[in-house]
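Entry 14. Ran structure prediction on the chain below.
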Amino acid sequence: MMLFSAVEGTISRSGRKKSACCKILYFTIWNVFFVNVFTGSVIRQLRVFSSVKDIPAQLAIAVPAQAGFFLTYVLSSGWASLACEVMQLYPLLCNLIKKFILRIKSDSSNDALSFPYHTEIPRLLLFGFIGFTCSILVPLILPFLLVYFIMAFFVYRNQVLNVYVSKYESGGQYWPIVHNTTIFSLVLMQIIALGVFGLRKSPVASGFTIPLVIFTILFNEYCRQRFNPIFVNHVAEILIDMDQRDEQSGAMEEIHQMLQSAYCQFTVNPRDLFKCGCSNHQEDGVPVRVPENVKPGLIHPMLGRLPLFGIKDTISWLSLLFTFQGNHPAESASHK
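Output, structure tokens:
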């Protein structure tokens, strides 16, 4: 998912992780919840949805049938993931290979890990989603989820304070994802409750559930209009503080040097295509100097240099061909 997010062209590290977080969240909710519910009950019994009215009733029947799976998933994937997070097995293995096999004794600053928002936030939201949807029909799962979230609070608090290094400030960009997932979980829980009350032939309870769904959607719309601009437009004070910290740490010159080569692209002039793809060129009459150590080739802002030199040669030959064809009629007319 990080590779897909990088191919999208996202510039910042936080933007790539945010995009990957959304992809992983959609995949896990669909794969863990809906696929297991529907394949375990609906397809196995050869039932299909004849209308939209059948969806709440089918969910009310299918979710309890998979209660054992969800309970086992919380115990195995939830509690075990917290244990693996505390032990840090993968960094520990890499460190052992580096120290004892490769004989590298020096520690690099690049080895410091940042908090994996794109993997941990979808996992937390998935367990919250399971808790909301199963709380009506399978309340036995709630104590296990409560224990998981209590342990997760202490584990992630220790990891954020003592293990991971903060490499950037996202400005709360992940909170809208958490809010939207929680609202979706509430709406789905209310739809399942509507199906449960319909199966039990309780029209009064079903009648009170429908306004609850409407009020939840209206509350989401109010929060979107009231608080969403805060996450889209950053406060100028925070941005000024970030610039001041960069100036004090001496990182401004490095940032400026990185910006010179981050968006370096080859020119479209056919005569310059045979030269370096990132040679000096002019924009609005102002010469733009590019670092000399940049080699020819297509450059992606996030993926680095792509090994697609043949494409550049093909474009250069096509450009020369089109230029020759464009000039040939004019020469023929001048001879006539």
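The two ends are 61 Å apart (CA to CA). Will compare against last week's run tomorrow.
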